[in-house]
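I am going through a labmate's work and have reached the protein record below. What it holds is a sequence and that sequence's fold in token form. Please read both lines and tell me whether the tokens look consistent with the sequence. Do not assume that whoever made the record got everything right. Thanks in advance; the entry in question is below.
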Amino acid sequence: MEQKEIWDADTARRYDTPGTGMFAPEVLDPAVDRLARLAGEGAALEFAIGTGRVAVPLAGRGVAVTGIELSPPMVEQLRTKADEATIPVIIGDMATTVAPGEYTLVYLVFNTISNLLTQAEQVECFRNAARHLGPGGRFVIELWVPELRKLPPGQTATVWHSGSGYIGLDTYDVLRQHVVSHHFHFDDSRQAELFRSPHRYIWPAELDLMAQLAGFELESRHADWDGAEFTAESRSHVSVYRIPPSR
């Protein structure tokens, strides 16, 4: 499926889960705190701004936030929380679309760079971030670590969540470096609802090389937004890349 088909009006209506999941304060607040510190007195640009999960509270901290978003229905949901004057949004692809203005920070959270399904598109996303930043500007990416160590020979799927009313699993195509995330929601009835999304997974070392091709240097990498140490056991990372100040 094309990304435009996945992020349709129905998905947009159900995307927000206030107070739970990725909208839970313990998940969202540390991300907003860190991004606000990195933006400083400058403006921030969010790639794939969606319904404004991060942008709305970040703007509430006094940071001038602009967004780029592929899905008009997602922006419609954002507009129920913030108008165009408060958070301007340009409809387009995060790998090629240019937003007006000057920024000290570009950020791309919650694994969304993996929505770009080729290495070339992911490299262009880095180059597009660099296009919006001056010397010393930062690009922040939050991304999960592929769980290939969990795959014994002959097995192509991993279950990453199993709980009451929800099961999440990933199926891997290691030849193409693709993964499809399957989200099963169910209740006490005999019916279940399935949502699927395709991704291209990226190892941290490959991500660093993409950054170098776009003129960035790795400034820091942590296991979460609170700054926990990134180790071989970490399931995700927050990586901060910076344009050298002397560029």
In short: The two ends are 40 Å apart (CA to CA). The CA atoms of residues 223 and 237 lie 4 Å apart.
